[in-house]
From TrEMBL:
A Gene Ontology BP annotation from the UniProt entry: protein neddylation
Enzyme nomenclature, EC number: 6.2.1.64
Keywords associated with the record: ATP-binding, Ligase, Membrane, Nucleotide-binding, Transmembrane, Transmembrane helix, Ubl conjugation pathway
Organism taxonomic ancestry: Eukaryota, Fungi, Dikarya, Ascomycota, Pezizomycotina
Gene Ontology CC terms, in alphabetical order: endoplasmic reticulum; membrane
Pfam families: E2_bind, Metallophos, ThiF
Alphabetized InterPro entries for the sequence: Calcineurin-like_PHP, E2-binding, Metallo-depent_PP-like, PGAP5/Cdc1/Ted1, ThiF_NAD_FAD-bd, Ub_act_enz_dom_a_sf, Uba3_N, Ubiquitin-activating_enz
Keyword Endoplasmic reticulum appears in the UniProt entry: no
Family classification: Belongs to the ubiquitin-activating E1 family. UBA3 subfamily.
TM stretches of this protein: 866-887, 1025-1042
Protein name: NEDD8-activating enzyme E1 catalytic subunit
Signal peptide: none
Residue intervals of the E2 binding domain: 384-461
Organism name: Elsinoe australis
Amino acid sequence: MATVAETQQPPDVLPIQNGDALHNSKWSYRDNILGRAGPFTDEDWTPGEPIISNLDNIRVLVIGAGGLGCEILKNLALSGFNNIDVIDMGNDRLFLDYTIDVSNLNRQFLFRQADVGKYKAEAAANFVMKRVKGVTINPYCGKIQDKDEDYYLQFNLIICGLDSIEARRWINATLVGMVDDENPDSLKPLVDGGTEGKYSSFTFGYVADLVVGFKGQSRVILPTMTSCLECQLDMHAPRETVPLCTLATIPRQPQHCIEWAHIIAWEEERKDITLDTDDPEHISWLFNKASERAKEFNIPGVTYSMTQGVVKNIIPAIASTNAIVAASCCNEAFKIATGSNPNLGYPGTNNYMMYSGDDGVYTYTFEHEKKPDCPVCGNLAREIDVRREWRLQDFVDHLAERPEAQIKKPLIRTEGKTLYYSVPASLEEQTRPNLKRKLDEFLADGEEVVVSDPAFAIDFKYKPQTATPHRVAFIADPQLIDPHTYPGRPWPLSSLTIAFTDKYLKRSYHHIQRSYDPDTVYFLGDLFDGGREWNTGSKSFHASEKQWKRYGPKYWRKEFERFGGLFLRSSQVTGGKQERAEKNIIASLPGNHDLGFAAGVQVSVRDRFQAYFGQGDRVDVIGNHTFVGLDTVSLSAMDVHGSDPKLWQPTMEFLDEVKDKKRQAVNHFLGRTPDYPRGWKFFHRTASQPEERLLIKPKYDDFDDLKPASELPTVLLTHVPFYREPGTPCGPLREKYPPSVPRQEVDERNAIRVAAGYQYQNVLSKGVSKTIADRVGNIGYIFSGDDHDYCELVHRAYTSAGSGIKEITVKSISWAMGVRRPGFQMVSLWNPVNEFADPLPGSPQAIRMPTLQTHLCLMPNQLAVFIQYAFYFAITLITLLIHSAIITMRERNKPIWTPIDSVLPVSEPEKVHPKKDKARSRASSGSANGSANSTTKSEGNGFLVARSDTARARTVSPSVSPIGHYGLPPSVELKGVPLIDRAGYYGKRTDEDAWIDELDFEMKPIHKRRRGFAMHFLETFKKDMLWVACPAFGWFFWLWHVY
C-alpha cells in the first residue's frame, strides 16, 4: 500500500551529491519502475523516457489539506509529481476552523506549533516544497465552489481528500457535468479517498472528544463511464438522525444540542439566510447557540470541532487510517498518470477499495456498478417506497434519512406543480401548508418527483411507490391474574381484580386489532401468572406450596379457555373487522411464570404448555425476516450445577442446528424445496414493483443447481432480556425512572436491575447470552419481555453484532404489572427481495437502511381512570349532599297549612278541647229521614268536617258559596226559619255543641309536629341518589356488557 517513493530512503538521508547525480539517485527507483513493463502492464504500454518526462507535465489538483490532504501532498511529491495545486478553505483569519489548530497537530504531520493560526493549504505547500526540491505546489485558500469549470479543466487529475460528504458530492457532480462527448480532454479522472469514524464523549471529571475511526475507502471515478460518488453514496455510514421531539425537549448528548441549533434555532432566528456549512461565521453562530443549549440542560462536551463534524457530517479518523487511505489514492494517481499498471476502474477491473481495521486488518476490492437511476450520472427516476398515510412532511423527513439522498433543505416539485421550497423564505412560507397534506393529494402512484438541494448541483428524481409493510405486534406479559397473584386478597376484592384486569386486556387487545390490524401477533411469554404452580396430574409434579395442590388439570384448562377468550376468539383477533386468512398469532414463547426458571422448570409443566401452545424453540419467516424464538427460561438451567439435562438440552440441541434451520426456513418460504407445499405463508407482496416484476414463486426442476438463498435479517425473541452490565441505562422511554441529567454511562435507577430470586432472573447470564449470540449469528434485533417496563439499548459485546445488536424490552400489556401506562411494541417490516432472497434495488437493505422500524404504543392509564372515577364520584356525592340539605331546610321553614284555594277542604281530627268556646254562624241542613247529617263551615279557611249520625240534624243549601266552596252565601235570606235562630238564641248548649266547637277549633291553621332534620335529610338524599345512580349504573353495566 506504500507509494512508489516511500520504499526508498528519504531525500535528507541520501549521500551528498551534486547536480544531475543527485537528481538521478533521488528518482532511480521510480525510473526503474517506468523503464520496464511489469506482469500486469498493458501490452500497448511503452516504457522509457517519454513516460518519465510526461510525469513532470502532469498537473494534479488536491482538494483538502487536512489529515488526508497532508498525506496525499507528501506522497505525490515523493512519487515524482512536480506540478501540484492544493485548495482548502480559509478566507477569514477571525475564524480558526480552516486554519491550523493545536488539535490538528496529532494527525496532520506537515504542521508544527509555529503554524497554528496559519492557512492549512499555505503551510502544507511551504513545508513540502522546502523538503522536496523541484516540486511546485500552488495553494488556494477558499471554497471549491468559488472556481468555475475552466479552472478544473486545466488539470489532468483530481484527488479528493475531503472529510465533508457534501463537498465531495459537489465536486463529483461538477466533474460529471463537465464531460463533453466531443472533447475527450473534458473527462477528468477523480480519485476519491475517505475515512470513517465518530465522536464519542467520555466524562472523567472533564469531557474529552475521542475520535475513533479505523475504516476507509478509496476509489477511482471516471465521470460518465464508471459509477460516480453519488452512485456509491449508500456505501458511506448514514448520518445519524435524532427525533425532533428529543432535540426540542430533552436533549441528552452534546450532538443533540448542536443539531437543535442547526435544525431548529437557525430556522427560527435566521431563516432568511441560507445556512452555509463552509461559512466560518455560520459555524461559529451554531457553536454559540449549541453551547447555550448545553449549559441550560447541564450537558458538557460541546466543542467547536464537534460542531463542524455534526453539521457537515464530517467523518474523522485516526492518523494511521489516513496514511493507509492516502497511500492507496496516490498509488492509483501514479497508475493513471503513467499507465504502468491497471488502476481501479480500469475496464474489466474493480473500482472500489475498502479498508477496515476495526476487528483485525483487511482490505478488499470490488466493482461498484453504475446505477441507471443515479441523480448525477443516470437517466432514470429512482423508485422510493412511501406509506399511504404519509404526509409531505414525512416524505421530507425520509429524504433526509436516506443515505443516497441526505437532503436537509429540499426543493420538491413535479412537472407542473411546486410542492415545497425550503428557500427562499417567501416561497417557504407559501408552500409550508402543503407539508401537512397527504401525498396522494399531490401525486398519482408512480408520478415522478424532482427533489433538489441548494447545497448540491443535483436534481434527484423519484417515483414514489406505495409500500405495504408487514406489521408485527409484540405483546409481553399479559400474566392473567389468578389466585397465585394476590393470595391474601379477600373476596370480593379478588374477584373484582380479576374481572377488571381481564376487561382491560380484552378491550386493549380488541383496540390493537381494530385500530392497527397487525398481520402477526407474537406473545413474548408470561401468559399466566401462576401457570407453573398448577398441578399437571403427573407423578413427577411437585407443588411449591400446599395451597396450590387443589389447582389441577381442570383448572389449567379453564385458564387456557380464559386466555383464548381474551386473545384467540375470532371477534378479538379480527377486532370486529372482516377476517383475513393471513393473520398469524404465535404464543409459544414461554416465560418464567408459565414454566418456572432454570432448575425450577418442571418437565411435565413444560410438556403441558407446549401441548397447548406449541414449541418454544422455533424459526419463522415473517415479512422477509427470520424470527428465532428461544425457550431461554429452560436454557438457563445449564448455568445451575447438577441440573437435569432434560431441562436445557432440547434448546441447546436446537441452537446447534439453528443456522441450518434458518436456511431451511428461508428456502421453504421461497418455495425452493421439493418437499414443501407451494404457496406463500403470508399474502403480502415482497416487493413494490410493476406486476411483471413481482416476486413469483418459480417451479424448479433441479433444486440442487440453484444459487443458495441469501440470509434474511434475523430477529431473536426471548422472554428474559440479554445480559448487560449493571447500571446500563434503558433510555428516556422507561416509565419508572427517566434517565439522569446529564446522561450517565452507569445509571442504576434507569437500568434493569441485574438480580435473581425464586423462579426469576432479571437478565440472562453472560455465558448464556454469548452462547445464543454465537450460535444464532447475524442477529440484528432482540425483543424480550419479563421486566414489564420499556428498555432499549445496543449490545456491542457479541461477535454476531456487527455494528451492535439492538434490544428492546417490551412493556407489559397488563395494568396490574406495576406500570401506569401499559403498552405493546408495533414493528413494521419492509424488505423486498427477489427469488434468491437478495434485496431489490432501492430497497432499505440495498441502501443500508433499517428493514425494521419499531414504535412503542401506550395503552390507557387505568389507575388514572379509577382516580377520575373517584374524583367525579366525590364531586357528585358532595353535590347531592348540598342539594339534600338545601331541600330539607326549605321544607322545615315552610308552615304546614291547607291552601285557601284548595279544591277540597282538608281536616285532621285531633283531641277534643272542652274548654274552648267560640261564637260563629251556623247553617243547618237535614234530610227527611235524618239518616245522613253534615256540617259545612263556609269561611276563608274552607275546612270540611264530616258529622256523625248522632249529630244534630242541619240542612245545607246545595248552592255554592261565592268563594268557591260548599256552604250558604252570606247574602241569602233564610225564609221559613224561626226568628229565634236569626236572633242568635240557641237555647241550652248540649254536649254535642261543645264537641262541635272543639272540633271547629282544631280546624284552624296550625303547625304540625315535624320529623327530625336527620330523618328528612336522609330521605331526600336517598331519593337524589336513586335518581343519579340508577341511570349511571345502568349505563356502566351496559358498556361493560357490550365492550
